[in-house]
Structures are given as structure tokens and as C-alpha cells.
Design a protein that fits this description.
Homotetramer. The protein has 14 helices and 7 strands. With 313 residues, the protein is an alpha+beta fold. β6 and β7 form a beta hairpin. The chain binds 6-diazenyl-5-OXO-L-norleucine.
Length: 313
């Protein structure tokens, strides 16, 4: 049942979030936390939090919405924004903008496509973006952390050294992707230095409240919390479009069908989503489906757009 098909601007999201949390409690088969990074495997799959941040920074939340979790691939949205802001369209000579239809860590398309990854959100594409940001800034992960701290208003956000070390110890596949692209001349920095930046990037711990606030610049068409512009309106549209088509990997079609919003998942169990011109959301629950997306997270966003009528369609 639609609570409010076209919510007025004064809609408070709290009753919607409360209702979703109640429904999610009964979601069967909540999936399994990622186990290929041992530091993530220990999280309780029943944890659940959800936050909505309005354009003025008002945040609503439910459940474990203030509990920090591992942001992982959600950070790919922010490094993409930082790099696009600096180098503009030149980036697209090094990474594509098409859905891959393959798992996030897949190697298969790279050889046929000359070391140019399909999009910035699969691991290969994210490595290219981080490499380019590293070349331009000398500290890609530090730039990212500064952006997340500023947009969330939370100066305590930080890298999780245990998660970064755990991923370094199990990083053979990402190393293979980076070396393979380097063989095509599509990576500038030494691979070990790039992997260090990438694993630190993925290790940042943040809560649903932090990430909903941090993503709000995409709902504000590129304007940061302090009123300055990070992305042009057109670039903000581009990032949102790539989230919609590529943000949940080989499940992006199903996510668009069920949720109808630009979204980006991470194997820590978080998903951010954007309602352009309206609000940004983040949901977290560590149990993943076989494609690496949070089971309860997708279900909660599905309910959110159904109950509020808010979607890009
Ligand atoms: O590269 C990796 O394997 C992780 N650090 C990030 C993967 C991730 O979150 C993919 N998402 N669903």
C-alpha cells in the first residue's frame, strides 16, 4: 500500500523508516556476510539500519543507523566524483560507462576490451579511477576521507587498518586486475602503491547517517554541504546514471526494477541511494546475496520507494 504517492516537501520520513524496519525484521533468508575479507565475516547478519538525509542536512534514521560499518565499494562513488571534478571527460578514455553483466571482481572482459574496464564501479574500473586520482593528488584515499568527513560533518570517520590489512592479505584478484591493466598502459602508479590506496579507501568505516549525508551532494545536483560545487549539474547526473546502471553489478537491472533509484552497494552490506532533488539514503545489513548486495538493504529500499512513491521513474 502506498502511504503517500507524492510526498509533500514537509514529509517526515520517520514513520516510513519505522514501518520498513518492522517489515525487515521478518525478511526471511537474509544472506551471508562477505567472507572473502575475514575482517567482515564476523558481522551479525541481523543488524539493520537505515537513514534518509534531506537536502538541508536533516537526517532521519532507524535501527543501527549510527553504527559504523565497512563502506567498501560505496566509496567508488566518491572517488569517481573527486576524479571527475578534477579531470572531467578525459577519464572516459580510460574507463567505460556500460554495465558489465559480470561479478564485481571479474577479469573476463578486460582482455577483449584492451584493459579498459566497463565502468567505474566494478573493481577494475575503480582501480583505474583511484589510480588517476592518486596521480592527481598524491593521496587518493586521504582526499576521499576528507570529502566524507566534510560532507557527513563527522570528523571521526577513519580508515579501519584491520580491514585494510585483511584485504591486502587476500588481495590477489585485485592485484591481478591492476597488473593486467598496467600491461595495457592503463595504470600509472606502481601496482603495490595503488592497491594500498584502494584497500585503504575501501576500509573506511562509516554509519548510515554518515553516508546518507555524504551522498546528499548527488541529490543537490553536485552542490556540497557548504554550498560550494563539487560537480557540475551535468556531472552529477552522469554519476547518478552510472549508479543506476552499474551500481549493483550484475544485479543492476533487478535493482532498477525493484528500487528505481541510483544506488551503490558494498560488500560490507551498505547501499547508498539518491532521489535527485529530494534526499539521499543509506541502508546497512551485512547479509549479502550471491551477487554481493545486501539482502535486507535491497528489500528496504524496495519498500521505501513503494511506500513513498519516490523514485526517478
Ligand atoms: O575490492 C574488493 O574486493 C573490496 N574491497 C570491495 C568490493 C565491494 O565492496 C564490491 N561490492 N559489492
Amino acid at each position: 500500500m502506498v502511504i503517500m504517492a507524492v510526498p509533500p516537501s514537509s514529509l517526515t520520513y520517520q514513520p516510513v523508516l519505522k514501518r520498513i524496519a518492522e517489515e525487515i525484521e521478518h525478511t526471511p533468508g537474509r544472506g551471508r556476510p562477505a567472507d572473502y575479507i575475514p575482517a567482515l565475516a564476523a558481522r551479525d547478519p541481523r543488524a539493520f539500519g537505515m537513514a534518509v538525509a534531506e537536502l538541508d542536512g536533516t537526517v532521519y534514521g532507524v535501527g543501527d543507523w549510527r553504527e559504523p560499518f565497512s563502506t567498501q565499494s560505496i566509496t567508488k562513488v566518491f572517488t569517481l566524483a573527486l576524479d571527475l571534478a578534477r579531470e572531467g571527460d578525459e577519464l572516459w578514455e580510460h574507463v567505460g560507462r556500460e554495465p558489465s553483466g559480470n561479478p564485481f571482481n571479474s577479469l573476463v572482459q578486460l582482455e577483449h576490451e584492451n584493459g579498459i574496464p566497463r565502468n567505474p564501479f566494478i573493481n577494475a574500473g575503480a582501480l583505474v579511477v583511484t589510480d588517476r586520482l592518486q596521480t592527481r593528488t598524491g593521496d587518493a584515499a586521504g582526499e576521499l576521507l576528507a570529502l566524507l568527513r566534510a560532507e557527513s560533518g563527522n570528523p571521526d570517520l577513519d580508515f579501519d587498518e584491520e580491514v585494510a590489512a585483511s584485504e591486502t592479505a587476500h588481495g590477489d584478484r585485485n592485484a591481478a586486475l591492476a597488473h593486467f591493466m598496467a600491461s595495457y598502459g592503463n595504470i600509472d602508479n606502481p601496482v603495490p602503491a595503488l592497491l594500498d590506496q584502494y584497500f585503504r579507501q575501501c576500509s573506511i568505516a562509516a554509519s548510515c547517517a554518515d553516508l546518507a549525508l555524504a551522498a546528499t551532494f548527488l541529490a543537490r545536483h553536485g552542490i556540497r554541504a557548504d554550498g560550494t560545487r563539487l560537480l557540475s549539474r551535468s556531472q552529477a547526473k552522469q554519476v547518478n546514471a552510472i549508479m543506476l546502471t552499474c551500481g549493483t553489478y550484475d544485479a543492476a537491472g533487478d535493482f532498477a526494477y525493484r528500487v528505481g533509484l541510483p544506488g551503490k552497494s558494498g560488500v560490507g552490506g551498505g547501499i547508498i541511494a539518491v532521489v535527485p532533488g529530494r534526499c539521499a539514503l543509506c541502508v546497512w545489513s551485512p547479509g549479502l546475496d550471491e551477487r554481493g548486495n545486501s539482502v535486507a538493504g535491497v528489500a528496504a529500499l524496495d519498500r521505501f520507494t513503494t511506500l513513498t512513491g519516490l523514485s526517478v521513474f
